[in-house]
Records
---
Amino acid sequence: MVDAVFADDPAARAAQRAYFVNRVVIYGLLGVFSLIYLLPLAVVIMNSFRPLPEIAEYGLINIPRQIHFSAWADAWGTYCINGACEGMKRNFMNSLYMTIPATIISTILGALNGYILSKWRFRGSEVLFTCMLLGVFIPGQLALLPWAFLLGQLGLNNSIAGLVLVHVIQGISFTTLFCRNFYVSIPDDLIKAARIDGAGFWRIFRKIVLPISPPILIVTVIWQFTGIWNEFLFGVVLTSGKQQPITAALVALAASETNVRNFDVMSAGVLIGAVPPLLVYFFGGKYFVRGLTQGAVK
Amino acid sequence: MQPKPPPGLTPNGLRMRLGEWLPFALLVPSLIASFVYVFVFTGWTFYISLSDSSLLPTYGWVGFENYAKLWSSRRWNIAYNNLFFFSTFYVLGAMAVGLLLAILIDQKIRAESLWRTIFLYPLAVSFVVTGTVWSWLYSPVAGIEFMVQSLGFENFEFALTASRDLAIYAVIITGVWQSSGFAMALFLAGLRSVDQDLVKAAQIDGASSFRIYRRVILPSIGPIFIAVAVIMLQFAIKTFDLVVALTGGGPGISTTFPAIFVYDLMFQRGQIAQGAGAAIMMLLALTVVLVPYSLWMVWRRRRDSGHG
């Protein structure tokens, strides 16, 4: 913005000073906000390594004076939640067993649906698409009773498989929306030419659509993975005890604290629950943000 | 574009006809599932809300009695008052902070992606995690109050979650912390899409950057403001996990929300008919927000394509 060529010119010097002040204000504000945003993360990370007496004496927001690792082992394997002293490993695995299949299935279905709804349109397909979209907006509370009833009928109550089903059906709306909006931008002429060449539904999908799909599939997978991993309502309502995903276990852990708060173990527990989506965020950041903005604006 | 296929290589009739039906057939399971999810589930919940169900679904018709009970219940009144209060300050707060951050980041700063990463990471963690950690930070015996007091400011008070009147502010602050990065991302995308020629023209006219933002840039991203507000309102109406983890709806029932009310009645108190009625009210609230927005979007798209 500023040319320092005429350094002797008072106007130029004033502009330079104004620029400097402007930068100080900008970085100052960014710094203050960063501190607020990072504080909770820093607090849990540090407290998962601080011994409990130290936390009790110096409070949660303080630097570690001693470091110990036993809180992590406790939180993972031996801590008592709801009477069972197995730590969170079981709930962590539950969340994995729930999130991975639900993410894969809903993404595959979304890609197929999106491909059909954008490139194999038929009469009424737009209306059907709109109906599917409504699923994005329905609050989970409306579906609680029906799901509880339906899963009971299917013999899937209190099971990970039941949660997978719930998340797949809930997720189809989103994944279809993402993929359809992406595939719409493939020129129709390309598909037409392929059909004239004799390529059928699957061949076009494999040879034309799939090769250009990675960006949208990554966005969809990240969106689904973080969304399903972090989901709480269905987990807490449709499963109990050992079958619960980690979000529900975390709330149970925090609520089961009666008199002494084991902040060290709970910090480790919170981090165990937060690490998978955080890893996805740090490694897939660009796609994560793209998913957010796409899911929001469309 | 591509050369025409030589005659004889075109697919035969049967395969063609099969091929015509295949896409539809593949779509059918998803369609049925979505249809059941959207219409049958909602319809059934609505029907339950008109029935005399208590612990289990029963189908004695009582009309809108459950809704009358709902609206005369103190708990529900607190819940929706909280929702209004929370929504207002949560949406405005997250938008204000998000816009400020977006403008700061838009000033050609160094390490832009690092800053963005810092402000956006809360979105990757669950409301449960956020709520749990912030409940510790509000704790008077170990959190922010304790820290500031031990720095020597002994009269400092920040025990928001211990007070019936102030706990809702704790929910608002935490909600803003979690969501403002999201608003930032959307605003930033908007700021980057502004026609740079307009901005340059204003700069040449000697307008200050504050004026340029107020008069040129922000007005041109008006639609983004509405989109952000609508999305945030949607979050607000569905608010559940955050409050459960942060305050558990307390102290007392001071931070109860419609979504918590639904859960409570359905699964803790065995009054599923009234719970279903409350869930329908949540749907109504979402409809009030989303239908005008969708109509507006459709209107805008028509208008734009009419000009194009």
Note: Chain A has two domains: 10-70, 89-297.
---
Amino acid sequence: MVSSTEQTPMSSETDATLDRWQSEEYKYGFYTDIETDSLPPGLSEDVVRLISAKKDEPDWLLQWRLKAYRHWLTMTEPTWQNVHYEPIDYQKIIYYSAPKQAKDRPQSLDDVDPKLLETYEKLGIPLQERAILAGVAVDAVFDSVSVATTFKEKLGEIGIIFCPFSEAVHDHPELVQQYLGSVVPHNDNFFAALNSAVFSDGSFVYIPKGVKCPMDLSTYFRINAISTGQFERTLIVAEEGSTVSYLEGCTAPMRDEHQLHAAVVELIALDDATIKYSTIQNWYPGDKDGKGGIYNFVTKRAKCLGRNSHISWTQVETGAAITWKYPGCILIGDNSVGEFYSVALTNNHQQADTGTKMIHIGKNTRSNVVSKGISAGFGQNTYRGLIKITKSAHGARNYTQCDSMLIGDKCGAHTFPYIEVKNSTAQMEHEATTSKIGEDQLFYCNQRGISTEDAVSMIVNGFCKEVFRELPMEFAVEAQKLLEVSLEGSVG
Amino acid sequence: MVELVQEKDIYRSAFARLEAESNPVGGSALIALRTQAMARFAELGFPTLRHEDWRYTNVARIAKTEFRSAVDCSVDLDERAIVAETFPEAQFHRLVFVNGFFARDLSSQHGLPKGVQVGSLAETLDDDPSWVERHLARYASYQDHAFTALNTALMEDGAFVYVPKGVIVEQPIHLLYVTMPGVEPIVVHPRNLIIADEASQVTIIESYVGLGEGVYFTNTVTEISVGEGAVVDHYKVQRETTQAYHVGTTQLYQRRSSTASSHIISIGGDIVRNDINAVLDGEGCDCTLNGLYVPAGKQHVDNHLRVEHRKPHGNSREHFKGILDDSARGVFTGRIIVHKDAQKTDAKQTNRNLLLSDNASVDTKPQLEIFANDVKCTHGATIGQLDKDAMFYLRARGISADAARSLLVFAFAGESIAKIKPQPVRAQVQQILLERLPQGDQLQGLS
């Protein structure tokens, strides 16, 4: 890296703390050795059939997987993104791996492998305690098979279905068949097609008409077992007048090999329904030289199908070597609302190309986008978003704000918004800024006895506040903590 | 693919004709340049919608039309026909090009300061081919732009302006490009080279007009080199006919502490694409890009901006406004690139659009690419319609709906027009706009 001709006149203390932070190690790196029931690496039609057979799936789902696989074979990996990585060898990935205990599923937490529970302990997710105290039902996914489902019965009483995807396929095939692939079709994009062919498990949520889900639903995705790409599939359906808040959070063990995570999330909101989907992503970002780390190539999309429906995405992305995703909303119902709130942090050699897509089709549809990107070290942070207001979207309204913050002189921040408006009654505003932490702000804090580290932490937290505010209470606390850990040593 | 080969063939034969000339303009250096550019064009081909920089502008109609090389027909042109297009002779130096060829009889210059050269590029290159090596195609790269490559390969003439060190050219230089299409579609490739040496000052106005009926294609490239501490103001008023295709690149190259501005006013044309690129390759540069586009009918206007900050302490301001009526389509791409060394850059970009009709549409891509940390960069884009409250206010005071609408539209454009410094040019743009607006005559004298 060539140093700049004009060195930024930052105090040496700041430099020191920045260095310290930039070399901060991943705290959640550990590896639990559990005997897994894995397929050999590689992908073929047989593997797809085998996955389907192992999960004892009905024929229509197998056919759907095969259709996706055959289509995937005809596709080429996209190259337009602003992230760079070694080519992925899809034949070296293990497409199915399940803990041995899968055959006789645990009925309660007591039946769960203590080693697994230990893993959660290390992660700071006291499953039981959290479930009871925080009122969160956790459907924890450990590698590919869901091993614990809590509060299911309680939710079942009011008609809510919250279960692993593979279970939903057996118990509620009509719902799955109706909605699977209705938002992200099997041939949507390269990674979505791959996911459709080999998806292992995930969560299924169904909120019946008029029901307000009494608690936040939560899932922890984890990646374990060497070279197991995880292909999650989440499907949430909110019937007329229902409300649900869904939380997703992740951490992963430290390892040297890149791992691919190509999940698909589909949300469907019918008339007057509200879905709030929150993500905290803290996967292993690779070491300070950019070695290792997880590829997070995810397709997330929501369909506001009904009138007055409301879907909101909130994400805090601090982990993964590469984050590449655009959670979007298709606003079909009149007066429907789509929201996107994001904090993406890239440190060391992390890369992020993320943003949102808001497609306005219905009348008086509204969307709100707030994106905060923070780049440090050699991090490259890209906001890429599409706001499309079609001819039928009379009176559509969009407001987009994307702010970037740069820490250090080797990182980059990029903004690539696409705005397409075909209706004259639409109102669209887009604003973007890029800046660094003001020296005067730091000076002001220092002067009042606040260390540079605390000051930077405070400023960054303030910068992200608009997004954190959107998170459910428990997550907001965790997000702030996560940012602090990620920024520790300098940026809080 | 077969079709594509045919598309290029038209231009290959034009190129072969130029190559075969016994006494080629610009000597061997220009021949070499043309050959390279032609080869590059053959490689690139015409862009399609799959090309990221052209995803909203379809040039298939340009690619498919069999354009003939334009012929010099300045003798057919009655001087009175272009009177309306010119500015007072006493206040402007003027160069007129008809179908791409320099029309000496229609041009005028008087009292140019010593050392200043204003004239035909072809003649200049003939006299001193060393200009080719030193400046021509040194700023506007034809590597990634098929139309620039085509222009570089097939250029015949254009304006050449050279202002030596410390000289101030007080009167603006007006470059008028008149195209007179015939029965068959014709193509012209005007090529301009403007060099302002250290601490000099000059104002350049490019006007593009079409006379008569017929399809034609203007593919123009203007290279402007702004020396250390120099000040260059550039205006481009494009008023082609609605049967015309216009693709133009304006390339600004700025050295230390220089100030440059480019104002792009797009009024005419069927498919219009303006590429405005600025490279701030010295400390403390100041760059202003200002634009106004007012397409109506089925017009398509694409403004593609790229501002590259290479050195510290640069300022750039981009301000583009669009007013779109009927089935018009507006496209805006603004890209600010801040290199790692360009600390203390202050870059601002704004794109505002007014949609007056349900069939009009806008696609805008304001982009920031930043590799330096101590910068202030912002961009903003808005798309909306006329303020209902303002309309109501005017209507309540007995102003007709048309006049009220025109008044608000005129006010929206006012900000961009006010930035045009030479009064006659400003008045001309205002007049054109008023003529387009319903009951615009009532607004006369408002400005």
Note: The first helix of chain A runs from residue 12 to 22.
